[in-house]
Specification:
CATH superfamily of the largest domain: Aldehyde Dehydrogenase, Chain A, domain 1
Distance between the termini: 68 Å
Largest sheet: 7 strands, mixed
Shape: globular
CATH class of the largest domain: Alpha Beta
Number of strands: 25
Strand order of the largest sheet: 15-18-19-14-13-21-22
Bound molecules: ligand TXE
Length: about 475
């Protein structure tokens, strides 16, 4: 069994308690590595190391910090095949997707925020009597907590802006997918990131995660994960008035109007619904199709879903791997059962999928499409976070918007129509942080990213992330 270690003060360290737990390879359904079960003592060591490193890192010119982050990005790229393979084994995403998305975005995130921080400056103000300027200053030691669905992408997305802005970080990846975070930590010294600037602690949310959110010397927490966990973290952070950024769940609509380019919309809805086995907070899990094209669209969508190649995620041609864990597979299968009890008809998929050979015990679920459910049922209201899409017809634009908005979540939506004015009108009325027009998950890292309603608090991306990890000080003088 491989052993994952914490990274504290520039050194790989065993957890103080000596306790570990197992993590699984979901494609074979068996444990393959040991994860530190870190706790308060490990956190204390990390906070001490980070506090010691902070003054020098803070005072370093942003361009110098950027150099180290670029070097770390170079090292990720140099080892990208090893990272992609490790991420695939840990998470189950097919290796091609890991390479093209999870790992490529890992290094891209580091480069992007390194460069953004160099041009991130305060503002100047002037009246006839007073001139003022602002100084955006780093917060100190901050915490990032990331989930299992896009391990490397979200791990770096959280800590890169914090480091670039001059903070020291204690980063906790998900206990379900800790491997690539551990590998990345192993490159930090070579990249020239000073000891204590980046610390990586592994362990369970309820133990080390909760310790991090309650620690008095950590003034800010950036979290991506489930809405229930987000609420717990928000409540804990409130006790000490910490800053929080919460990127939470989604139940996102894909709206297809009858004037859409049918082929592009089908392909878009497939990508939105089933990318990463539906385990992306942005996935379009509720497909709304205008009635004139409903039957044709449904036929094409189901046929296309059946073509998705399920199999061993280490094979280059595989498009659809296993669910991340047994617990998660059981949760998703539970929702598929529920959907049928609620009156839904399975059009394809709908059960555990057995892959022959090496992956025969893997936790696979085929792309699943369900028809005939009302928007108010649990299947259409709760985040399933798997390869499950419900499809339903609508008559008018107003009805489509009302159906889209009839959930507690509000992260993202995609709208398919060739009518630009209609696309803009719908975008304005959808209750979500992000709307894509005739595309899905096209990301410009400068743009604000985040949700409304139960999908989160705050915005990340570009300048917003740097603002979150700094406090603005106003300096004024009389003239
Ligand atoms: O995520 P958790 P889980 C959704 C999805 C999924 C559900 C639960 O619906 O089925 O959430 O998944 C840490 N204090 N999403 O349980 O628990 C935890 O260790 C501090 C949506 O795996 O939210 C991990 O590092 N930290 C999603 C991180 O929080 C705590 C991505 C996320 O885990 C903690 C993942 C605590 N009390 C799941 N409890 C998205 N929207 O991207 C847990 N953690």
């Amino acid at each position: 069994m491989q052993k994952i270690l914490n990274f504290i003060g520039g050194e790989m360290r065993e957890p103080v308690s000596g306790r570990y737990f197992e993590t699984d390879d979901p494609s074979v359904g068996a444990p393959y590595a040991l994860v530190p079960d870190s706790g308060a003592e490990d956190l204390e060591l990390a906070v001490t190391a980070a506090k010691k490193a902070f003054p020098a890192w803070r005072d370093m010119p942003a361009a110098e910090r950027a150099k180290a982050l670029h070097k770390l990005a170079d090292l990720i790229d140099r080892n990208k095949d090893a990272f992609a393979r490790a991420e695939c084994i840990d998470n189950g995403r097919p290796v091609a997707g890991c390479a093209a998305v999870n790992i490529a975005r890992g290094s891209a995130n580091l480069r992007f925020f390194a460069d953004e921080a160099v041009t991130f400056t305060g503002e100047k103000f002037k009246t006839d009597k007073i001139e003022s300027y602002t100084l955006p200053q780093p917060l100190g030691v901050v915490a990032t907590i990331s989930p299992w669905n896009l391990p490397m992408l979200l791990f770096t997305w959280k800590f890169a802006p914090a480091l670039a802005a001059g903070n020291c970080v204690i980063a906790k990846p998900s206990e379900v997918t800790p491997m690539t975070a551990c590998m990345l930590a192993g490159l930090a010294n070579e990249a020239g990131i000073p000891a204590g600037v980046l610390n990586v602690l592994h362990g369970k949310g309820a133990n080390i995660g909760a310790e991090m959110t309650a620690h008095p010397d950590i003034p800010a927490i950036s979290f991506t994960g489930g809405t229930a966990t987000g609420k717990t973290i928000y409540a804990s952070a409130a006790q000490q008035l910490k800053k929080v950024s919460l990127e939470l769940g989604g139940k996102n609509p894909t709206i297809v109007f009858d004037d859409a380019d049918l082929n592009k919309a089908v392909e878009g809805a497939i990508t939105a619904g089933f990318s990463n086995q539906g385990q992306i907070c942005l996935c379009g899990s509720r497909l709304l199709v205008q009635e004139a094209i409903y039957e044709d669209f449904k036929k094409a969508f189901v046929a296309r879903a059946k073509e998705i190649k399920i199999g061993d995620p280490l094979l280059a041609e595989t498009q659809h791997g296993p669910m991340v864990s047994k617990t998660h597979m059981e949760k998703v299968l539970g929702y598929i059962d529920l959907a049928q009890k609620e009156g839904g008809k399975i059009l394809t998929g709908g059960r555990r999928y057995i892959v022959d050979g090496r992956c025969k015990d893997g936790w696979f679920i085929a792309p699943t499409i369900i028809e005939g459910l009302p928007m108010t049922c649990r299947t259409n209201q709760e985040e399933i976070f798997g390869p499950v899409v419900t499809i339903m017809p609508f008559k008018t634009e107003e009805e489509a918007v009302a159906l889209a908005n009839n959930v507690e979540y509000g992260l993202a939506a995609s709208v398919w129509t060739q009518d630009r004015v209609k696309a803009d009108r719908v975008a304005a009325h959808i209750e979500s942080g992000i709307v894509w027009q005739n595309c899905w998950n096209m990301r410009d890292l400068h743009t604000p990213f985040g949700g409304v309603k139960k999908s989160g608090v705050g915005r990340e991306g570009g300048r917003r992330a740097l603002e979150f990890f700094t406090e603005e000080k106003t300096v004024s003088r009389c003239i």
